Here is the input.
Amino acid sequence: MVPCARHARQPCGIGRRKNHPPDRETLNRAAAIAAYHSKARGGGVVAVSGTLAGNVSKPRGAKPGSVLIRRERVFKVRPALPESDTPS
Here is the structure.
């Protein structure tokens, strides 16, 4: 699954094992991190698109950075970084 903020379109991937899709909590955390690193960081709730890497392509003649996303799933999350598990 490759979550990316809808307007920033900055891909950030998460690992995937064969026949073991990531759980919903992992996808939501990855979407929140993608939203945090996008231009929409201060926008409250952000729509983040997620799909498998094979469903992302660049149309011919398109500007650099433009992509076509098929079979996307939209996550609505608040931008956030994960909390550290180590004590400070």
In short: DSSP finds one helix and five strands in the chain. The mean pLDDT is 79. The two ends are 32 Å apart (CA to CA). Residues 24-36 form the longest helix (13 residues).
